[in-house]
Amino acid sequence: MEPSKTKLLVNRREKLLGKAYRLFYDKPVHIVRGEGVWLFDSDGNKYLDVYNNVPHVGHCHPRVVEAICSQAQVLNTHTRYLHEGVLDYAEKLTAKFPDGLDIAMFACTGTEANELALRLARAKTGASGMIVTDHAYHGTSWQIAQITTCYQTSEKRGDNIVTVPAPDSFRGLYADDAEAADKYAGHLRIAIEKLARNGHRPAAFIVDTIFSNEGLPTVPPGYLGKAVDIVRQAGGLFIADEVQPGFGRLGTHFWGFDSHGVVPDIATMGKPMGNGYPISALVTTEEVIEAFQQHSHYFNTFAGTPVACAAALAVLDVVERQNLQANALNVGEHLIRGLKNIAENNSLIGDIRGSGLFLGIDIVRDRESREPATAKTNKAVNLLRERGVLINSTGAYDNVLKIRPPLVFSKDNADLLLQKLGEVLNEI
Predict the structure, then answer these.
(1) Are 310 and 279 in contact, with CB atoms under 8 Å apart?
(2) Adjacent-strand bridge partners of 240
């Protein structure tokens, strides 16, 4: 039998790119075009994109495409020349932050932004210790791979890096405990003591403020503020990784840290900034920058170019003009109501959590024990793909369906997702 077109492509990919690259789904999808919340494969099949947060305002949004093309026709060079467009974007971006967080530094990826944040934290504190949650994801460079705890890597974690439990109210160490916030925060003291035994002081505590790779847990109220206070008392900074929750996705707040009532010392962002055009950034205080620039300078050839900033400025413009943060909240609440209706008749759903257009569905074998149903979650992911819905999973047990579509996702799109999801869970 002749191998299929998909199999030929997979074989060619492995030969040319190597096997370290991973593909989604048991039967990979050959995508050739995107528009809004839809992706189209090489056979013309249409898929509802419920997973990709990079096209924040929709695949190939015409306003963003036009901004990229128009600026590329005029100039694209680095930031060692003056350019008003770069400053216009920095001004508009920092205006989205609390007072004091008013300096932006650009990079190309979330990994780069997080690595730069670590450099700033070390310069400000004179320390090298890092605290990160279990099963976190912050990027792919050598340094950031060491604080990415959701994967096994060949990079040996240094003794200046320690982990603390993710604050999970559903399945964590202190699930259903009225004192969970204090108990989880107490692990920061343990981490600081461990660093001290290893000869280190804390430079920073970094978290993805929706704890995405940790399974989007419902965080005990007050936890993050208590944890950050402990770190700051020990001389460390708080870095809010906003790569996934930022830019209005949560609906209730523009940034994830706002939802916890905590102001970071440094906030990092990436993926959705340019709707697919590579740009990332961190925003911090003059005090932090002053400590860094005494001994270092920063330059990145492809970071914050005129074209990158034109794309990013267009994204902010679309978010505001189309009221996409409000749409995220409205459609997200609609989705939650629909998911609760499905859960009434399907015991696979153990928990529904998240905010706006960033939701998690915890799939369980048994609601009482809350035992994760990893195999059934994987089956749901692949059955939805067969029905034209692209979704994926997350969490320490890979049993949380992650709903994270472009912010132009509508109630009609949500209803289609709910219909297909109900069918799949009933079949399983």
Answers:
(1) no
(2) 207, 267
Domain 63-321 falls under CATH 3.90.1580.10: no
CA quadruple 386, 387, 390, 395: dihedral sign: negative
Mean pLDDT for the chain? 95
Q: Which fold has domain 5-57+323-427?
A: Aspartate Aminotransferase, domain 1 (3.90.1150)
Averaged pLDDT, 5-31: 89
Where would I find the beta strands (DSSP E) of 24-181?
31-35, 38-41, 46-49, 103-107, 129-133, 161-164
Render pLDDT for 203-244 as a digit per residue (tens, 0 to 9).
999 999 999 999 999 999 999 999 999 999 999 999 999 999
Q: Long-range contacts of range 171-178, CB-CB < 8 Å, 24 or more positions apart?
A: 171/215, 171/217, 171/362, 171/370, 171/372, 172/217, 174/220, 175/370
**In the chain, ranges of CATH 3.90.1150.10 domains:** 5-57+323-427
Tokens matching residue 274: 């340019």
Segment among 3-12, 245-254, 346-355, 401-410 with least mean pLDDT: 3-12
